[in-house]
Amino acid sequence: MSIAGSKVALRRALPGDRTRVYEWLIGSDLASNLMGGAMYPDRPLPSSEQFAAAYPDHCFDGRWPFRGRTLIISADGQDIGCLSHGAIDVLNDVVELDIWLAERRFAGHGHGSEALVLLCDWLQANYGVNRFLVRPSRRNVKALRAMRRAGFRETDLPAQEVVSKLALPPGQYADEVLLFRILPVPNGVFRADPAQTYVFIDSEFTALREPQLISVGAVATDSTAFYAELEGWDPAAATDFVNTTVVPLLDGDAVPMDVGAEALTQWLQERALNMPTTIISDSGFDRWALAELFGGENLPPNVRWQRIPVSYQALDEATQRLNLRRHHALDDARALRHLVLEATVAGGA
Question: What CATH number matches the domain at 197-346, 3.30.1340.30, 3.40.50.11740, 3.40.50.2300, 3.30.420.10?
Fold first, then answer.
């Protein structure tokens, strides 16, 4: 993956980038603007072990993208810094970002601001998150200026109230500033392209907070369907709603995650061999489900994902009208297909 802007480009960091990313953080001539020394007694320089704990292997290999990822910023063919996102909180629709440059000479050119904008836009389009947070120190005036240029604005609410409401981890500065960039939710306009196959997908999981994947269902515009129930989820982690509404609808023929991943990959590849394929879901949770099932950040070749927001009530009504089982992954995918395609026809697209 490479995201290009007018000044900078972003690429996913690799395991071999870890050492120099750490050196950029603690050893550059910009480090004193972020941490350590007399200016930041509340945030000392992290040891390599502390850095590894804060940025685990998945931040550099992409195995669990919804748990956090590190990216490299480049400009004029040279790597100039690092940008990272933390765990994507799909329930609260928020993700925390962090950024640091390799050297002072790279600062002051708008590189950091553009990198932040590029990542926010990419995360919304590919993972369905719409709200982005940075938490700099009020002492770091230059960073505040760059983040505001990127469209981040300070919340009017008391910081501790926001931290508590969004279940955020403790801040790293005594004088942290909570700055948000909030993108409008995609309007859900769907214009069918006859040169594409569309796959409508739904998933069931144990809980909105710390979910575990239970099942995945999908239906395509080529009249094929896919359904799999997965092993490995803990019934004790399921909410009362899941236990009383979702679990009774399961077929009970669950397969290991790797078997389910292989089957879904093969099914998607069969669609994508014929023409470009777009997966459509109504929620970022379903994009999380794909990443969880595949154990990685990439979809199969020639396959992309798009969110089309559909109201909970509309899905309730569609499943009832079509005599489908609400909260069964395959039937909910069928209801989603019906609603999206029905709206397309009604709108004359």
Answer: 3.30.420.10
The residues, ordered by sequence, that sit 6+ positions from 118 with a Cβ below 8 Å of its Cβ are: 3, 5, 8, 10
Question: Distance of CA 169 to CAs 23, 45, 163, 165, 241, Å?
Answer: 24, 19, 7, 11, 27
Report pTM.
Answer: 0.93
Q: How many residues does the chain have?
A: 349
For domain 2-182, give the CATH number: 3.40.630.30
Angle at CA 203, nearest 5°, toward 197 and 204? Answer: 165
- Burial (CB < 10 A; 0-12, 13-18, 19+), residue 11, is middle
Count of alpha carbons within 13 angstroms of residue 149, beta-carbon side? 15
β-sheet bridge partners, residue 142: none
Mean pLDDT of each 10-residue bin along the chain, 349 residues long: 92 97 95 91 94 96 96 96 96 97 94 97 96 96 95 92 92 93 84 93 96 98 96 96 97 96 97 95 96 95 94 94 96 96 61
User: Residues 203, 165: contact at Cβ < 8 Å?
Assistant: no
Quote the pLDDT of residue 119.
97
The span from the CA of 88 to the CA of 85, in Å, is 8
Of 63, 87, 117, nearest to 284 (Cα)? 87
Q: Give 192's strand partners.
A: none
In whole angstroms, what is the distance from residue 278 CA to residue 143 CA? 38
- Sheet of 277-281: strands edge to edge? 225-229, 213-220, 197-205, 277-281, 303-307
- Tokens representing 163 are 């931290």
Same fold, 2-182 and 197-346: no
Distance CA 73, CA 80 (A): 6
Residue-range domain boundaries for the chain: 2-182, 197-346
